Every structure is written in C-alpha cells, then in structure tokens.
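Input record, target 12 of the design panel.
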C-alpha cells in the first residue's frame, strides 16, 4: 500500500530494546553460578512487570509490551546459551574464569598501585563490585598467568605491565 493511504497517527515507533552486554561472536557465554542466578532473577522481574502491565492507552500498552517482550527474548537467548563454570573447579594456581586476582602496576600512570578484580561473565560484570568480563582486554591479559608472573595490557593507548600478586577462588 502506498504511504499516501496511511494515516500518520497509525504509525507507531518501534520500541527501543536495550542490548545485552557485548559477547563477541563465537565466544562461549561463560557465567558463574551467581551470574546465572542473577539472569534467572532478572527474567522473573521482567515477567512479573509484563504480567502486571496496567496501561490504559492502547498505543502505550503495545509499546511497553513490545519492549518487555523484546528484552525477555534477548535475556532468554543469553540464559539459553549460558555455560556455568564453577570457580572452585578451576585450576587454582593460575588465573582462570571466576578467579579474584590481585595485581600491581609495574609502570605507566598507575605505577605501584594495586587492584583486585574477579573475572566473570559479561552480564555479571560491574566495575562497582570489581567484577570484569572475561572478554575484557585486562582479563584476557591476566588469564593463564600465575603468581609472580608479569603480563602486558594496552590501557588507554599505553602498554602497561602488571605483576600477579594473588589468586583466589571462592
């Protein structure tokens, strides 16, 4: 049908569905048991919001329903592709998925400072809790290293050396 025969008021904007955290193509969606539970809890919350949707305006209700449904579909894809790795089942003498790793900057702007991160799945990563995604450049640089080893990572366009101080699993 020609656009000349369509009323402008009948045209609804497609809803914006926020994307999930980036997971590179071909990369397995590893999650910790806690991360998997977070995903399931998020699904429960979204399903509850969708079931309790109480919007009078038809257009607004359709838009909200489409947004929640789209978000649920993305979340269900992520849950379906999740592969749970238990940190305690990892090799304990080197940095692996789920490890809490402490390291020291040997050079660069942060020289001498220490940091501690846990390597987690992309959906559970949050810098506030010092959790970084296992696909982040710094996580990749740390993975497979042992206490006392030095690795390099490009941070802010500058190559920095990091020394592994401690590896913990819980």
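The sequence produced for target 12 reads:
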């Amino acid at each position: 049908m020609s656009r000349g025969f369509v009323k402008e008021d009948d045209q609804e904007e497609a809803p914006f569905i926020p994307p999930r955290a980036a997971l590179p193509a071909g990369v397995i969606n590893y999650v910790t048991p806690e991360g998997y539970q977070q995903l399931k809890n998020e699904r429960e919350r979204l399903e509850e919001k969708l079931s309790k949707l109480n919007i009078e305006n038809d257009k607004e209700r359709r838009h909200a329903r489409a947004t929640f449904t789209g978000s649920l579909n993305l979340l269900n894809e992520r849950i379906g592709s999740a592969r749970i790795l238990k940190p305690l089942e990892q090799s304990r003498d080197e940095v692996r998925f789920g490890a809490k790793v402490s390291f020291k900057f040997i050079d660069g702007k942060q020289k001498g400072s220490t940091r501690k991160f846990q390597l987690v799945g992309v959906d559970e990563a949050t810098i506030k809790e010092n959790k970084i995604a296992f696909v982040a450049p710094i996580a990749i640089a740390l993975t497979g290293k042992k206490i006392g080893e030095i690795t390099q990572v490009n941070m802010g366009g500058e190559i920095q050396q990091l020394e592994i101080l401690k590896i913990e699993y819980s």
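The CA atoms of residues 88 and 170 lie 6 Å apart.
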